[in-house]
Each structure stands twice: as C-alpha cells, then as structure tokens.
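[User]
Um, tokens okay?
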Amino acid sequence: MKKILLFIVLAALCLNFTTRAQEKPIITVLKIGDKVPEITISNIINYPGKSAKISDFKGKLLILDFMNTYCGSCIEALPRLDSLQKKYAGRLQIIVVSNETAARIQAFLKNNEIAKEVSLPFVAGDKTLNSLFPHEFVPHEVWIYNGVVKGITTAEYVNGKNIEVILNQVPVNWEVKTDLAAYDYHSSLLVINPQNLNGQHTPSTVYYTTLTGHLPGVATRYTHETDSVNHVIKLHLINYSILDLYRFTLDKPNDFPYSHIRIAADHPQRFIYRHNPEYRDVWNNKNTWCYEGVFPASTSEKAIREKIKLDLDFYLHLKSSIETVSANGFLLTRDTSQTPSLKLAGEKISSNNGQLDFITVDNLLVRLNHDFINLPFFSDLPPDSTIDLNINPDALLSLKALEEALRAYHLSLQPCLRSIPMLILSDTDTLIQTQP
C-alpha cells in the first residue's frame, strides 16, 4: 500500500512539473526560422485584453517594436507604425514593447504630443520578450508570422512593401540586426602573435596604424586616450563613413559641413549615406571603416590628423586636398515684401508632432549644410537671430519644398556665388575594392 501511495505521489509531482513547464516554457534566444514558444504577453496597454498569447496572432503578421520613452527616433516612428497598423488591420498586429514600468508608459501615452495620437498597443515592464530577442539598441524590430521568426531588423524595414512580402509568404533574406554592446572600444584591432615571439623578444612599445572594414553589431564610436604607462596615444574611429573619416582629419571637424565637400570620384554613393536606395545597415556593412592608431605620447594632434589623412589616401586609393573654390550656393535672407518673423533668442530646439523647430538662423544653416542637397547655404541675417520656423522634415528633401516652407515664415533663398574652403576627394589610379 505504501509503495502504491509513493508511486501516486511521484506521478502527481511529474504531472505538476509538466504543467508548470507548459505554463512557463524555458526561455532561449530565438533566431530567424525559429518557432516562438506559446508564451503569454502580459501588461498590454491599449489592447482589448491585458494579455495575449502568441497563438492569438495566427494568420497575422506580428511585429514587435522594441523601444523606450527616451528614444527620439522610436517616438518619431510611432505615427508611421500607427498608419501601417490601420492600413493592414486584420492582417497585421504591431505591438510596441518596453521594459519600462506601466506607470511610465501610461504617463508617456498621456503627455507625449506624438504618442497621445496613436492607438498602438504597448507592453509595459516586459522581460520575457526581451529575453527571447535580446538587444542593446532601439528601435529593434522582430517579425513573426504564424509563430515563426521571419526577420530581426532595424526600423527602416517596417514599411508597406515589406509587410506585403511577408503576408504573401515570399522568402526574405534581410540583414539581421545584431547588437554587440559588450565590445571593448579601447581594445586593439591588431594583436602581436605570441606564437612567433617569446617574452624576451616582445617589444616594449609598438606604434602602428591600421584600417579595417566594418565591425558588425558595433556602434559608431570615437575613442582617444593617453596611456601614461606605455607613453602612447591610442585612437579609434569605429565604423565611420569615408566622409566622416576625412572630416576628422580637419582642424575643426564638427564645424566643417558636408556641403563643403566635393566628391570627384567614381561611385559617390559609397562615401556617405544620403538618399541611398540600400537599407542603412546594408550600406554600413559595405561602406564604413575602422581606423586605429597608436602614436608616441609626444605626437601633436596636428601630426596625428595628418597621419590619418595620409593613411586614408593610401588605403582607400584617394587624393584629398583643401582648396578655396568658387561655389554656387543659396543665401538665406529676409523676404522684404512681407513682415519679418524674427524673434529674440533664448529658446531651445524641440520637436513638435514630427516637425522640425529651427530656433536660430545658425541652427537652420547647420542643418541645411549637413543634410540637404550638398549645396552650401549662407545667410545675411545675424546668426543668433531667432526664427519661428516649424517645418516638416520632408521639406529638406527638395529645394522647391524648402522654399515653400521658408516662404511661410517670410524668408527666401537667393542663388549666390561664394569663395569657400572645399575638401575635394578624387580617385587615384586604383579604385577602392568594395565588398560585393
């Protein structure tokens, strides 16, 4: 009788363990092609129920949009995601996922000017989905169709064309978004092979420079440190575009605008990502570079910049020079036919419902000279004058749209010719060999 009772107890325990295992499946990191376990998504705001199971979305495309309330690009994308949700209602479900508390998400949805206008469901305080799809940088998009992971991408992939591709069950081979947050930006790209040298022959100090290709999953970063023990300066430029590498070699790189760079080389699309047909992560993999330099501690900043310039010219098969040239551009001026709309300075740059607020004249010129159509912009207005200018980002994509936006604020653009210092990049005899 005791043996029978013992068997019954063990059987009950096994059944209990099995039931719990079904309720809380073991969490493992998922990849493309994996089946998503039947988990329960809890703490859903703006949803018919407070929770949902993966199986509830059978026959629909489920997109998990991982974000946080501190991410400006995540917030700006919400209206676009909301529009896609409404367009593909019944076939698509976008769920915004955050590990922030429900109280913070509720306050965000209530007070943020952009978020309060969307009706997307939000998951608050998430841990499970973040465990299944770990990441370090947001936004982070996971595509699930009929319970299978179809894609893990950056936000720019979320558009109508790609949604229809998945809904039509067309195979995709998108770049997988990978985040390598643990990467040590101070570590060396090159290491002496210890198998060729013993301890007695290892040099006490090594000076070198090197240029390598893109590091997948690693964010763009600049590091500069002085090693007082080995008396060296270590410098890293990780995953920089060619233009940004060359801008770094200038005296004041942050003040040198892209519009003052002239590309006299083949395949200009490899120099900077601007209105490029490729997705940004695909372009980065082929066209960004990593530079490392270890210099004697006595090396001046000017000498370091000159060395980097020479290395870039050599390795990239380019010729770079600063020349003063006459360049066609546009002069931002007051439209005298209307009442001017200049105000006193003192406000801060802000974003309003996806619009761009340009406070000072200088602020507007910086944006135009960096993001526009590679033509230099000037102004005859005081640089610290404040303009009450609130325009759509699309207005920066064409001259006509920009002129229309400025006209509403009693400003105009006049063609002009100015002598300016220009960074000129041209090919040498041998072209750079890009990745296929």
Remarks:
- Confidence is low (pLDDT under 50) at residues 1-23, 340-353, 430-436.
- The chain has three domains: 25-167, 208-320, 326-424.
